[in-house]
Design goal:
Length: about 475
């Protein structure tokens, strides 16, 4: 990797990480306060509509944003064509949700869902207006601007949500927080973006971009439905309180797995796309991304599983204790999410959206098993099933990407196995302290300190290349600040 590509990646990763901390991190902290003020059932009600919003957003985007990021030479008419397509489809999707809200309410046996769906549905239109400005910033690997926007929108919407909860708005506090967060995010993206739409539409541009994006649309829909289908299964066959517990476990998991995945996808895709015609550089860059990313991911996810109980008790209280078991299981499937994302990015970089779609169809057929198990045998069995399918999905993803850049699955496993074993040993030591009769306020810091010390000693002894590179990067960033 040349210095320019390396600098671009490091800069992008740094600001993208800060962006995720600013948005998801602040939202998570606000969520801790709201979890103290609201009930698991209220969180469960909000989670019931998650899949409808997520699927609608996928349809609105239709893979066009990825197609624009990948395209070498983007014209003004490309942006305008996609912008007006997104906007029109968002209005159609909102209308469909508005009409379907009574049916959604009946399905989940929650009358309040009619009003909630019709209000939160405006997020679709608001988000559609932000797609092109956000895409432009991603193309330019400009995550510094997005960080500013995330910081403003996350803090302001968090304050609004907390104020609403304190004044007795209940589940509407969550609605208000989400709605204002997206509204502010869109407004400030437009403030910082110099691009402005012009009324024009090109059939040729649409066909070119949709040719690539349509397969990503279908893949994205399958993936979104799969990830959020658990909300429907739990919401329909169990109670809203149990769904709330699962939702809270997922939110803890997302702090690390989803945010790391987002950072890797947002930065690696445009950077790797810029060297897609140079096989050796692409392979080496790809390998470094995998090794460094998984070192951090394994440490975070396995460590989170080890400290799940004291962490939840301290932060949100014992009414959320059932979420502990859910979280610990989810961590084992969540630790592979960044690895999935990196492998799938290669398919997009190489323009193989057909393989991307084929993979998603195969994986989602396999994933039907855990869903059926969940309906018949319980939520925990369903989650363990998702761990198994996550490992199967990795082998499928890596099989195709391996052939495209000559980086076989067995080599990937050899590259990430040392960091997995180190993190697993460290997490087991951390978890063993839960067997002692200690207060969670003593147990949690003790686990963290022990985990850091053990991991540091092992990595210093083994001196793995990815650890040394991350260490050097951290030291150089500290030196720059000084």
């Amino acid at each position: 990797m040349t210095e320019s590509i390396k600098d671009k990646t490091v800069k992008g990763v740094g600001w993208s990480l800060v962006d995720n901390i600013a948005s998801s991190g602040i939202t998570f902290l606000v969520g801790l306060i709201l979890a103290r003020l609201l009930t698991p059932a209220e969180y469960g009600i909000m989670a019931m509509i998650t899949i409808f919003i997520a699927v609608s957003n996928s349809i609105i985007d239709s893979g066009f944003s990825n197609a624009l990021v990948r395209k070498i030479d983007v014209r003004r008419i490309d942006y305008n064509t996609v912008f007006f397509f997104n906007l029109i489809v968002s209005l159609v999707m909102y209308l469909l949700l508005y009409i379907a809200s009574p049916a959604i309410s009946v399905f989940f046996k929650e009358p309040i869902l009619v009003e909630i769906v019709r209000v939160i549905g405006w997020v679709l239109v608001i988000n559609a207006l932000a797609i092109i400005p956000r895409t432009i910033f991603v193309r330019n690997v400009d995550f510094k601007t997005q960080t500013k926007v995330s910081l403003i929108s996350s803090i302001a919407s968090g304050i609004i949500g907390i104020c609403m909860a304190l004044t007795g708005f209940g589940v509407w506090s969550l609605v208000g927080q989400q709605l204002f967060r997206q509204l502010l995010n869109t407004v400030f993206l437009w403030v910082y973006c110099s691009w402005r739409p012009v009324v024009e539409f090109s059939k040729n541009s649409f066909k070119e971009l949709f040719g690539f994006g349509s397969k990503l649309l279908l893949s994205g829909l399958l993936d979104t439905i799969y990830k959020d289908i658990y909300y429907i299964v739990i919401g329909r066959f169990y109670t809203s309180a149990q769904l709330g517990q699962y939702t809270r476990a997922q939110q803890f998991n997302m702090i690390f797995s989803s945010n790391l995945t987002s950072v890797v996808q947002r930065v690696s895709y445009p950077v790797l796309s810029s060297i897609q015609e140079e096989p050796e550089r692409l392979r080496e860059a790809y390998r470094k991304v995998i090794k460094s990313t998984m070192l951090i991911t394994f440490a975070c996810m396995l460590g989170l599983a080890a400290v799940a109980k004291p962490l939840i008790l301290i932060l949100i209280g014992d009414k959320w204790l059932p979420a502990v078991d859910f979280l610990q299981i989810i961590c084992f499937s969540g630790m592979l999410y960044p690895l999935h994302a990196i492998n799938l990015n290669i398919l997009q970089v190489k323009g193989r959206s057909d393989l991307f779609l084929k993979l998603e169809i195969i994986k989602k057929i396999i994933a039907i098993g855990p869903i059926v198990v969940g309906i018949l045998y319980g939520i925990e069995c369903m989650l363990w099933g998702s761990v198994v399918t996550s490992f199967v999905a990795y082998f499928l993803n890596s099989y195709y990407s391996a052939h495209l850049i000559n980086y076989p699955t067995i080599e990937q496993i050899k590259d990430i196995l040392p960091t997995f074993l180190i993190s697993l040993v460290t997490a087991l030591f951390m978890w063993s302290f839960t067997l002692l009769d200690l207060s969670e306020f003593l147990l949690f810091p003790l686990q963290i300190i022990v985990g850091i010390i053990i991991a540091f000693i092992i990595y210093e002894k083994t001196r793995l290349s990815e650890y040394m590179e991350l260490k050097q990067l951290a030291l150089s960033l500290l030196c720059r600040k000084k």
